[in-house]
Amino acid sequence: MSGEVIDSIAFSYIDQAGKKQTTGPWGGSGGSPHTIKLAASEVVKEISGTYAPYQGATVITSFKLVTNVQTFGPWGTEDGTPLRVPVQSGSQIEGFFTRGGVHLEAIGVYKWSTS
């Protein structure tokens, strides 16, 4: 969810048994939700955004997710220090880890080699 900054992030997926699983949210409860849906053959190749001081904490101010098919975002306000986490050819992003308070403060990725 985002407004001026990235307030929180959560993920849902369908597991191998066909059940919806949700992780998160991490961060606060403000902002507007944004839903993205990935196709079965779509993989995450990069995340990027910005971070800056906001209301007494350093937070993620904008967030963008890039797949092998399309780009989602950016959400929030593209203001502050740029961050970019690409993966090299033969790899993809398989998961995320975060730190959040009232807003999303940090995000990282788990990469997996496809080759």
TrEMBL record:
Gene3D superfamilies the UniProt entry points to:
Jacalin-like lectin domain
Q: Which InterPro entries match?
A: Jacalin-like_lectin_dom, Jacalin-like_lectin_dom_plant, Jacalin-like_lectin_dom_sf
Show where the Jacalin-type lectin domain sits. Answer: 1-113
Q: What GO molecular function annotations does the UniProt record carry, in alphabetical order?
A: carbohydrate binding
One family from Pfam that matches here is Jacalin
Give the domain of life: Eukaryota
For this UniProt record, the keywords arranged alphabetically read as follows: Lectin
Q: What is this protein called?
A: Jacalin-type lectin domain-containing protein
